[in-house]
Amino acid sequence: MRPFTAVVRRSGGWLPLIGLPGLVGTLVALARPVVFGNAVDAIFAGSGSGRWFAIAAGLIAAGVLADLIGAYADDMCVASTTAWLRDRLVRHVFAIGLERSRRFDGGDLVSRVSGNAVDAAEAGPSVVTAGLSLLPPVGSLFLLAFIDPWLAVAFLAGVTLVGLVLWAFTKHTTEVVIAYSRALGRIAARLSESLSGARTIAAAGTVEREQCRVLEALPALHEQGRRSWLVLSRSVAQAAVVGPLVIAAVLTAGGFALLAGRISPGEMFAASQYAVMGAGLGGLTGVFGRLARARAGAGRAGEVLAVSPVEYGGLTLPDGPGKVEFRAVSAFAGDTTLVEDVDLVVPGGTSVAVVGRSGAGKSVLAELAARLRDPENGQVLLDGVPLAELSHEVLRKAVGCAFERPVLVGATVGDAIGVGADPDRIREAARATHADDFVTRLPDGYHTPLAEAPMSGGEAQRLGLARAWPAERLLVLDDATSSLDMVTEMQISRTLAEDHGRRTRLVVTHRVSMAARADLVVWLEDGRVRAVGSHEELWEQAAYQGVFG
What is each CA distance from 41 to 45, 150, 258, 521, in whole angstroms? Predict the structure, then answer.
């Protein structure tokens, strides 16, 4: 189902509450000229005008009430649909996984979820409003034909031109809005990158150059903004010309009909009002502009939703120590080979260091082991079961990951270790990774608001380690101790070594000390396994020593 259609269907419950009052308002608008026309004829006849004015007052009241109900339903529909779409987008971003989400920049994703979701949520109301906007000219056409066929002919000729103006406006506006959103997304993505690296930028003295990089897309944004105003101004100018032509054509035809005695003065008045309705189509650029923005927003949201989520199986794990197997595993990024033909068995319950020069594929191997990405070729197994066949719950309970730069989320420091987890388990993990030492010194301990907790890079890494610590089969550490001081690193290494074979520890590291304490070392070079052995055995090779600089 197309994204625009899906959003419209999701709005379905509110659409009758938007459409029915809109329909009442349209019928009121169509009835008013007839009522006022009869009132004019009654005035000329000298009797009965009061009744028609009373009916007109009732119609006006009904129109106001219908507008209020429609406006409320419209706002509620947009609000609820926006919440639904944002929820769906955020869940889908997590569902597609780390590797597949990389095709979108972080700032661009935020732009799609925050801005484009709101535009897309207008889809249902904009369709109803656009549809209702066509009823007055259609109704006017039939009523004019009822008054006098030549009035309808003149009206139809003019309204056709107005319709062409609106069609062109909607088409061009959709194209401009999509291009504008993409340019805005590029700026948001680069701004997000710059904010993440603000300290580095300031230290390097490249603030001005970074400003230029972030705002590089600003001319394109300006150009799309200029195009949108050109489209709008062109449509308004065209409508300003065509609209009066509709009125002039109907009034001319009506004048001849009045002189010929085919219509009364009241009918002439009604015909002029219907002509104004037709001419007013040119003022519906706002309605069709809303429809164009909704189409563009739904398209941008649909690009994210079109990415297939990571699929999980339904299998559980048999009893085992956490043996990891890579069977002819290869992974690519476009035309770049990240790891190739990796055949590797990591014995269960061991501590394994993964070493290699920058770009050797260490982090990719860690991502594959934790199923943060899937290989293009081959399989990764945990205790004999392919990772892709495990259920999501089983996989994430069995495998834990900690990274060099952990992103801590949650309201409090305790939440950063485990949102909703048992407080005793949170403290146990913190003590194991020596995070408890500094957390207990915070003003409110584990209840300290995360945003108000000052911490160093090493302390943040300890919280990241604590978050991953409960893993039952496999603990993957991707340079997760690089910011720790030597004493803390030794303490954590000792804790890992004292795991007594309970689970496997796969540690990506650049430190000789960490590799020396591992049971086994996997040496990667150019995406391939060059050697596997103990640190002492590999140290005899000069090339291995060179890995550590």
Answer: 6, 21, 13, 100
Question: Is residue 180 helix, strand or coil?
Answer: helix
The DSSP-derived string for 29-71 is HHHHHHHHHHHHHHHHHTS-HHHHHHHHHHHHHHHHHHHHHHH
> What are the pLDDT digits (tens) for 319-351?
988 999 999 999 998 888 999 999 999 999 999
pTM of the model: 0.71
Residues in the chain: 549
Coil/strand/helix, residue 454: coil
d(CA 180, CA 227): 9
The secondary structure of residue 401, as a DSSP letter, is: E
Strand order in the sheet with 385-386: 336-346, 324-333, 377-382, 385-386
Highest mean predicted confidence (pLDDT) among 30-39, 172-181, 271-280, 416-425: 416-425
Give yes or no for a contact between 340 and 314, defined as CB atoms under 8 angstroms apart.
Answer: no
> What does the mean pLDDT of the chain come to?
84
DSSP at 390:
B
Query: Integer distance in angstroms from the first to the last C-alpha of the chain?
Result: 55
Nearest alpha carbon to residue 502 among 318, 347, 349: 349
- H or E stretch covering 123: helix 123-147
Instruction: Tell me if residue 420 falls in helix, strand or coil.
Output: coil
Task: Give the residue, 51 or 282, on which the prediction is more confident.
Answer: 51
Residue 5 CB coordination number (10 Å): 12
Task: Round to whole Å and give the CA distance between 540 and 381.
Answer: 32
520, two tokens: 């086994």
Task: Give the list of residues 6+ apart from residue 213 with CB closer than 8 angstroms, or none.
Answer: 190, 194
Mean pLDDT over 260-267 rounds to 81
Q: Stretch 22-31: mean pLDDT, rounded?
A: 83
Asked if 447 and 439 count as a contact pair (C-beta separation under 8 A), the reply is: no
